[in-house]
């Protein structure tokens, strides 16, 4: 019944998932049976060799994660989650059924796509794209993501953001590259897909800036980053695939680091909003440094490894001469600096707004996941082509040319290349030199004795004044015209209308289930009419 | 190699300060008075380094300033100073234009973290203004640079410089140059886009709590960074330079243009500058993109 | 209990505050640089502040001497107390003075700082600034013209270079009890901020 094959693509995704799960099991082992079931279903998806196995794994993933989420989230959020994911599953089933009815087999290797007539190809693409959009939260199908990430268990949000959002990406690669093949895809549809991905990133970045809750900000940030991956995969060539895979790895580890850091802060203080936190810098310096490393990775700045994937995305777009798409991606990437700064300012910098009686001590196991993320970021910064070696096997197995690179320290994007080891080493060398110069200078430093010794126009703020109003960092942005349009609209209206229409139509069908004389008569008449019509044909 | 790098840093430092002194002098002559001597910035810097004590707010404040200085120096090292030369090119063969663009943002982020750690709300207000203004500033600038990269089919700064032997890029792609110049005025901190450090409004903005040697480090990094940005525009649009005199002449002409524009206009608000930059220079640069 | 913003013990441990009878070449050079670039805190305390804008702008142009206005006390060297000081203003002036970094100088502008001037019988202003803050240069007049202010700056430059008088900030540290006692007569017994070191983790 099941059909498995060990492929390099499956290996990559499964090792990522296993690393995330295991590093979280060091901290807490709640719902261990359901989480193991989730991991097994992911293994089934990644190692499947025919379509039915893939679908079975997909469905098990949907309902096992639903049970974990609904333990802690509200009823409305869990219902949103399961309805959207069941919709994704049904779209996938529809595509599989259409493929089977023309090809006659479920195995990947036996699906030859030119047996399918041309008028059925576009519906298959659209059904598959609906599945991928729902799972990867491309707008307007992102409606379920933000509330789910916010209300579920703090450590399960890591799994949601780091792994389950990549299931859609895996589906894209398996269907559109492996099974169907790029030569059958028309580029007009995928131009629209690329633009949808970029528009998702821009809108999600602006919405992330204006949030007050930490987890919602990171949820919108996840939507934005996965939007980049969908955009670059829709370019439909080998370097696009490579850039997408690199960004998958980087994004998984960065979100592991950031979400576990947020979970530690919530464990210690019990608060989830920026307006109630602040000034935790000197009490938890280790957590602060880990978050800064995560921020630099999220924003995609050299010398850390976040820059590598952004570089590959830019060089792919430059080679294909898609200038407008590149401008939009760079715009969204520059907007990301604002919410990255808000994340670190709202929690660790500024003046404290809390009292310290209700603090708990953090167990050391929270640091393991964060250190894993940090190590990967630093390792891939120094030897960026280490990941390219792994990707070359995947590229060969899917029929593309492998990328050649001169040395492990250099990342070659085809259009341009840079040397990661040199950047990192110069950075550290100059940092140390300037630190020594500043340290050796003649004058002494006079440390302020109290946090309130700030130059505040000759006044002294007493501790009751709220000086941490920098947490409201994104509120002034709504004065700019196009950002106000983005921030004040949401997709809630349209989904509400769809819900109302569905409820009304289901009320009509409900009438048939009332036992009464008119209804039975109506059913008998309809039954015989249908039989007559079929019999006439 | 190390002598090269040392010489580059000294050159950028001294010419950055000389240009800042010239800025004060030229502004003074525009106002109808004499200004300070040209070497005034060096005297300020020595005075600040020799203050008897400086106020520090902890190790994060210290680290933020060092981060900012590192960002400025490392950006400068990846841009070649001279054209067709093996000296004074730094590490530019290991990097390219995309690396330089992202390294330019590294320093300000470290600075922002250092400013946030001192707990003064005026500081974070200045940082917010800076980051919001960046959304507007980078649109026309990046469109112009992407246009150049696609037209030259390379991302390497030396190659783009060497391709300008017949005609400068400023005349071959004039609309791109105009869009890039308008946002370059904002990058250099001149009016009308200089709302970030407005001293009368928010108590000197980001630099509120800098004293003594920290302020001296901030001024030094500002000088090196200004020279770096001038160098980038000269290399990309005005053909680079084959020897030092030509380099200094070209950067001085570009700097003069920025100073004269800055002295005439008054300041936009943050929201106003973003709205202006998204409309006028972006459209100019987009139109220029179609004519590559 | 510590009053005010300066941690005096740490500053007293710094040996540079003793006035040396002979100065080495480096110290002479450093003093020359300090006199050529002076940053003034842009703070108009009283009605004498009307004379500061003409001095700093085109007509009398003190920027030739290297003098620039800055907005925050951390970056400033000179504090100009321009005119009368009511008790309210004096509190903020002293706080700004204490937040400046050494070496710092005070220029007192106008007759009100010398003997009370026009407000000699007011219930609300101070009569002698020297009781509350150390002053380096007095510029008298009501109001002194910009040329007089420039002459005051030139004399201050001379003082810095030749180190003839004990600078004001050294007096503030050594005679701190005298100044604080006078301030306590106006402000009450506890002058803010009084520290209980309420933020651990910053050593």
Structure description:
The complex is a heterotrimer of chains A (537), B (292) and C (203). With 537 residues, chain A is mainly α. Chain A has 3 domains: 1-185, no CATH class; 251-443 and 465-490, no CATH class; 492-536, no CATH class. Chain A has helices at residues 8-25, 32-46, 51-70, 75-103, 118-136, 145-151, 156-179, 187-209, 214-233, 238-269, 285-299, 306-319, 323-348, 366-382, 385-398, 420-440, 481-488, 492-510, 517-536, and strands at residues 410-412, 417-419, 444-447. In chain A, strands 1-2 form a two-stranded antiparallel ribbon. The two termini of chain A are 38 Å apart. In chain B, helix 1 (2-31) crosses helix 10. Chain B has 292 residues and is mostly helical. Chain B is globular and about 55 Å long. Chain B is 71% helix and 1% strand. Chain B has helices at residues 2-31, 40-49, 59-77, 97-116, 121-152, 157-162, 169-172, 174-187, 199-202, 212-237, 244-264, 270-290; one strand spanning 53-56. With 203 residues, chain C is α/β, with parallel strands linked by helices. Chain C has a single domain, classed as Rossmann fold (3-Layer(aba) Sandwich), CATH 3.40.50. Chain C has 8 helices and 5 strands. In chain C, the strands form 2 sheets. Chain C has a 3-stranded parallel sheet with strand order 3-4-5. In chain C, helix 2 runs antiparallel to helix 6. The longest helix of chain C is centred in the last third of the chain and has 17 residues, at 146-162. Chain C is globular, with a radius of gyration of 17 Å. In chain C, 39% of the residues are buried. The model of chain C is unreliable at 197-203 (pLDDT under 50). Chains A and B meet through helix 11, helix 12, helix 13, strand 2 and helix 16 of A and strand 1, helix 3, helix 4, helix 5 and helix 10 of B.
Gist of the model:
The complex is a heterotrimer of chains A (537), B (292) and C (203). With 537 residues, chain A is mainly alpha-helical.
Task: Produce the secondary structure layout.
The complex is a heterotrimer of chains A (537), B (292) and C (203).
Chain A: H1 8-25, H2 32-46, H3 51-70, H4 75-103, H5 118-136, H6 145-151, H7 156-179, H8 187-209, H9 214-233, H10 238-269, H11 285-299, H12 306-319, H13 323-348, H14 366-382, H15 385-398, E1 410-412, E2 417-419, H16 420-440, E3 444-447, H17 481-488, H18 492-510, H19 517-536
Antiparallel strand pairs in A: 1-2
Helix pairs in contact in A: 1-2, 1-7, 2-3, 3-4, 4-5, 4-6, 5-7, 6-9, 7-9, 7-10, 8-9, 8-13, 9-10, 9-13, 10-11, 10-12, 10-14, 10-15, 11-13, 11-14
Chain B: H1 2-31, H2 40-49, E1 53-56, H3 59-77, H4 97-116, H5 121-152, H6 157-162, H7 169-172, H8 174-187, H9 199-202, H10 212-237, H11 244-264, H12 270-290
Chain C: H1 8-12, H2 25-36, E1 38-41, H3 52-56, E2 67-70, E3 78-82, H4 87-99, E4 105-109, H5 112-115, E5 137-139, H6 146-162, H7 168-174, H8 176-187
Parallel strand pairs in C: 1-2, 3-4, 4-5
Helix pairs in contact in C: 2-6
């Amino acid at each position: 019944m099941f059909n498995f094959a060990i492929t390099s693509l499956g290996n990559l995704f499964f090792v990522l998932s296993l690393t995330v799960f295991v590093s979280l099991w060091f901290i807490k082992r709640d719902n261990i049976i359901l989480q193991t079931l989730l991991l097994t279903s992911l293994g089934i998806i990644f190692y499947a060799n025919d379509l039915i196995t893939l679908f079975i794994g997909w469905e098990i993933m949907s309902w096992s994660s639903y049970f974990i989420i609904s333990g802690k989230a509200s009823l409305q959020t869990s219902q949103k989650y399961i309805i959207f994911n069941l919709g994704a599953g049904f779209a996938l089933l529809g595509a599989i059924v259409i493929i089977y009815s023309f090809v006659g087999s479920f195995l990947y290797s036996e699906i030859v796509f030119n047996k399918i007539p041309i008028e059925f190809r576009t519906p298959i693409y659209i059904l598959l794209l609906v599945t991928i959009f729902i799972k990867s939260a491309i707008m307007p199908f992102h409606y379920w993501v933000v509330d789910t990430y916010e209300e579920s268990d703090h450590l399960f949000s890591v799994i949601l953001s780091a792994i389950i959002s990549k299931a859609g990406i895996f589906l894209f690669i398996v269907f559109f590259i492996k099974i169907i093949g790029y030569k059958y895809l028309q580029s007009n549809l995928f131009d629209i897909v690329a633009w949808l991905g970029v528009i998702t990133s821009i809108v999600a970045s602006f919405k992330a800036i204006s949030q007050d809750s930490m987890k919602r900000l990171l949820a919108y940030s996840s939507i934005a980053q996965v939007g980049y991956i969908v955009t670059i995969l829709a370019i439909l060539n080998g370097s696009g695939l490579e850039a997408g895979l690199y960004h998958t790895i980087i994004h998984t580890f960065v979100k592991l680091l950031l979400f576990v850091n947020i979970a530690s802060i919530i464990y210690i203080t019990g608060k989830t909003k920026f307006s109630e936190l602040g000034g935790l810098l000197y009490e938890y310096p280790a957590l602060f440094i880990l978050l800064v490393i995560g921020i630099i990775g999220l924003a995609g700045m050299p010398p850390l490894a976040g820059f590598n994937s952004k570089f590959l995305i830019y060089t792919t777009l430059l080679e294909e001469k898609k200038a407008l798409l590149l401008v939009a991606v760079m715009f969204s990437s520059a907007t990301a600096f604002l919410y990255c700064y808000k994340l670190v300012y709202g929690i660790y910098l500024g003046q404290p707004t809390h009292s310290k009686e209700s603090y708990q001590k953090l167990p050391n196991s929270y640091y393991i996941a964060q250190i894993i993320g940090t190590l990967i970021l630093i390792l891939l910064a120094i030897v960026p082509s280490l990941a390219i070696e792994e990707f070359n096997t995947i590229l060969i197995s899917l029929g593309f040319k492998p990328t050649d690179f001169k040395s492990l320290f250099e990342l070659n994007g085809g259009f341009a290349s840079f040397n990661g080891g040199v950047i990192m080493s110069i950075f550290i060398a100059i940092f140390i030199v300037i630190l020594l110069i500043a340290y050796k200078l003649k004058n002494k430093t006079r440390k302020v004795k109290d946090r309130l010794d700030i130059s505040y126009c000759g006044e002294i703020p007493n501790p009751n004044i709220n000086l941490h109003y920098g947490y409201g960092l994104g509120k002034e942005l709504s004065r700019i015209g196009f950002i106000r349009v983005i921030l004040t609209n949401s997709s809630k209206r349209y989904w509400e209308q769809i819900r109302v229409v569905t409820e009304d139509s289901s009320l009509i069908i409900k009438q048939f289930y009332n036992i009464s004389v008119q209804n039975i008569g109506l059913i008998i008449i309809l039954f015989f009419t249908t039989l007559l019509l079929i019999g006439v044909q | 190699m190390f002598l090269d790098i040392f010489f580059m840093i000294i050159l950028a430092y001294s010419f950055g300060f000389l240009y800042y002194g010239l800025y004060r002098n030229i502004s003074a002559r525009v106002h109808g008075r004499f200004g300070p001597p040209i070497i005034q910035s060096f005297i300020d810097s020595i005075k600040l380094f020799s203050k008897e004590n400086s106020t520090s707010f902890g190790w994060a404040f210290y680290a933020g300033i060092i981060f900012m200085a590192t960002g400025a120096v490392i950006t400068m090292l990846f841009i070649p100073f001279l054209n067709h030369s093996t000296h004074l090119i730094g590490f530019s063969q290991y990097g390219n234009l995309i690396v330089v663009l992202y390294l330019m943002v590294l320093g300000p982020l470290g600075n922002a973290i250092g400013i946030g750690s001192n707990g003064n709300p005026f500081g974070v207000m200045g940082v917010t203004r800076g980051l919001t203004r960046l959304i507007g500033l980078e649109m026309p600038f990046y469109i112009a640079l992407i246009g150049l990269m696609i037209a030259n089919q390379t991302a390497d700064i030396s190659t783009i410089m060497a391709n300008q032997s017949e005609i400068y890029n400023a005349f071959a792609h004039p609309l791109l140059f105009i869009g890039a110049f308008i946002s370059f005025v904002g990058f250099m901190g001149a009016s009308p886009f200089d709302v970030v450090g407005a001293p009368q409004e928010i108590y000197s903005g980001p630099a509120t709590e800098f004293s003594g040697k920290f302020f001296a480090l901030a001024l030094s990094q500002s000088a090196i960074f200004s020279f770096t940005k001038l160098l980038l525009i000269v290399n990309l649009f005005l053909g680079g330079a084959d020897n030092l005199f030509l380099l200094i002449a070209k950067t001085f002409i570009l700097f003069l243009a920025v100073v004269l524009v800055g002295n005439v206009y008054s300041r936009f608000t943050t929201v106003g500058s973003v709205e202006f930059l998204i409309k006028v220079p972006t459209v100019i640069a987009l139109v220029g993109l179609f004519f590559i | 209990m510590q009053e005010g913003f300066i941690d005096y013990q740490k500053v007293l441990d710094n040996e540079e505050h003793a006035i040396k009878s002979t100065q080495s070449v480096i110290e002479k050079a450093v003093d020359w640089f300090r006199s050529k670039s002076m940053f003034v805190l842009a703070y108009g305390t009283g009605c004498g502040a009307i004379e500061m804008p003409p001095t700093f702008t085109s007509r009398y142009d003190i920027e030739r001497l290297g003098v620039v206005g800055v907005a925050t006390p951390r970056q400033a060297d000179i504090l100009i107390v321009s005119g009368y000081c009511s008790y309210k203003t004096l509190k903020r002036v002293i706080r700004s003075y204490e937040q400046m970094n050494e070496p710092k100088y005070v220029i007192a502008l106008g007759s009100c700082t010398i003997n009370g001037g026009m407000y000699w019988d007011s219930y609300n202003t101070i009569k002698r600034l020297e009781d509350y803050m150390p002053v380096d240069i007095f510029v008298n007049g009501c109001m002194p013209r910009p040329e007089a202010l420039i002459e005051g700056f030139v004399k201050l430059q001379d003082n810095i270079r030749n180190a003839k008088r004990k600078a004001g900030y050294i007096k503030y540290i050594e005679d701190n009890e005298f100044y604080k006692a006078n301030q306590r007569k106006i402000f009450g017994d506890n002058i803010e901020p009084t520290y209980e070191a309420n933020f651990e983790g910053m050593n």
